[in-house]
Amino acid sequence: MTPAPDQPFRALTGMRDVLAPESARRRALVARFAATVELAGYREVQPPLVEELGVFLRMGEATDVVTKEMYDFEDRDGTRVALRPELTAGVVRAFVQHHPTTPWKVWYSGTNFRHERPQRGRYRSFEQVGVEVLGVDDPDLDVEVIALAWASFAAIGLRQVRLLVNSLGEHEDRDRYNEAVRDHFLARRSELGEASLATLKRNPLRLLDSKRPEDAGAVAAAPRIEDFLSPAAAAHFERVQDGLRALEVPFEVAPRLVRGLDYYRRTTFEFVADALDAAQNAIGGGGRYDGLAEDLGGSPTDGIGFALGVDRMLLACDAEAVFPAQDEGVDVFVVDLTGGAAARDLTHELRSAGVAADRRFGGGSMKSQMKSADRSGARFALLVGEDELAAGQVTVRDLRGDAPQSGVARDEVVAEIHRRLGT
Ligand code: HAM
After folding, report:
1. Which sign does the torsion angle of CA 14, 20, 26, 30 carry?
2. Residue 68 and residue 152 share a domain
3. Counting CB atoms within 10 angstroms of each CB, which of 147, 279, 296, 309 has the fewest?
4. 252, 163 contact by CB (below 8 A)
5. How remote is the CA of residue 126 from the centroid of ligand 1, in Å?
């Protein structure tokens, strides 16, 4: 047997345990999100956590997510696989595999893995909620998708959020723009630091969101995407902006917004939480990825979606003091001073009748059991002592109000609790 470690095991760097009440808060956030998008006809999809590595390489072989952050490994059968760093690629792979009727409107929630340098709001294991739609080219869909993200923030009470939108143009526009940006930075390479020169080589567009002060001059003077948009892409982007105005979703056009993944075409967007520090204030993002289905072996299909970072949304909620964690606890705590059988049977009966009930195991004095009752958050304590047992009764004590305690017949106690809880 392997010996016990010198130090107790801990979760891996960048990975966290989510304990109550935070775990309930996350579940509530996902439920609010689901309710918001299901109102618009989206249905849940649950793709696997692991895919063939090739599925994710389409996110861009020059992106950090693919080159530096992927948890990839050889499976036992020799297949090269990876833990998903996001859900879009897997969802589009599922679309290509199952040929659902279009438009295919889906939502998801789940954990993703990126081997990033951990800091507050940036983890190696993190959760997203999001939507994807396949099979629609209409710019009004872009508006629907963006408005749904906006509504999801409203659903949890987040207010200090800004929406940045941009268009990267069609495939060819983006390529021409990429070249112009590369030429621009090449001409000014003497101004760039070593890290920026490396980025320039790999992925020139990424330099546009360089935060390095020495790059600022060259970034400010870089060519602007709007000069490279085809008439069709420009008209699409206009219609998206008109739609956002019509739905009163405030936005800023951000011509340097390029996003970290390579599959984007035309509309791209990002949500920034002003209550968070700049390093992790992107609480969500998305856009069109019209070529992705084809890249994954399917027929050409338009696609658009977004993902919101659950961890960061909750940090933003903390910063805005909204959507607090609530430790609900149980309704009833049974205090049994007669050996435990009464607590065993009564909690079972209460739970079968839909009442949240708990008890203490191993007996203990009245005082220590009442302490457990208080800690449980229960509204009522049900006391069973020798006297109650002999009389076929239970004493009901209100732990929050100051009503006097009262004896209730054992057979009627479940109905009495329902009555007092108003359930
Ligand atoms: P993304 O911008 O890579 O896009 O991630 C979306 C959001 O996930 C980010 O804005 C952030 O809130 C959160 N996030 C990303 N990495 C981390 C991390 N290491 N720790 C905590 N939160 C993180 C995508 O993933 C695309 N799949 C979005 C999309 C969907 N595009 C089209 N459809």
Report:
1. positive
2. yes
3. 279
4. yes
5. 9
- CATH code for position 53: 3.30.930.10
Res. 3: pLDDT tops 90 = no
Count of domains forming the chain: 2
Cβ atoms of residues 167 and 288 within 8 Å? no
360, 316: one domain: no
Residues contacting ligand 1 via CB (< 6 Å): 86, 88, 114, 116, 121-123, 126, 128, 130, 132, 260, 282-287, 289, 305-307, 309, 311-312
Among 128, 134, 158, which is best to mutate for testing ligand 1, by the most ligand atoms less than 8 A from CB? 128
- Neighbour order of strands in the sheet with 332-336: 357-359, 332-336, 380-384, 393-398, 406-409
Q: What is the pLDDT of residue 71?
A: 97
Residue-wise pLDDT for 93-151, tens only, equals 999 999 999 999 999 999 999 999 999 999 999 999 999 999 999 999 999 999 999 99
Do 130 and 258 fall within a single domain? yes
Tokens standing for residue 365: 């004095």
Q: How far apart are CA 87 and CA 3, in angstroms?
A: 39
Q: 303-309 and 125-134 as β-strands: parallel, antiparallel, unpaired?
A: antiparallel
Going from the Cα of 260 to the center of ligand 1, the distance in angstroms, rounded, reads 9
Residue 396 half-sphere exposure toward CB, CA atoms < 13 A: 23
Give the torsion through C-alpha atoms of 349, 355, 361, 363, to 10 deg.
-80
**290 and 337 housed in the same domain:** no
- Whether 104 is covered by a domain: the verdict is yes
Pocket-testing residue among 26, 64, 86, 280, ligand 1, by greatest number of atoms within 8 A of Cβ: 86
Domain containing residue 378: 332-421
| Position 326 in a domain | no
pTM exceeding the 0.85 threshold for the entire prediction: yes
Q: Which two tokens stand for residue 275?
A: 């209550």
Q: What is the 3-state secondary structure (H, E, C) of 240-263?
A: HHHHHHHCCCCCEECCCCCCCCCC
Residue 70 neighbours by CB distance under 10 Å? 21
Reported as a single tens digit per residue, the pLDDT across 364-384 is 999 999 999 999 999 999 999
pLDDT digits (tens, 9 = 90+) for 147-200: 999 999 999 999 999 999 999 999 999 999 999 999 999 999 898 888 899 889
Do residues 389 and 365 share a domain? Answer: yes
C-alpha torsion 26→313→155→164, nearest 10: -150
327 band by pLDDT with thresholds 50, 70 and 90: confident
> Are residues 313 and 362 located together in one domain of the fold?
no
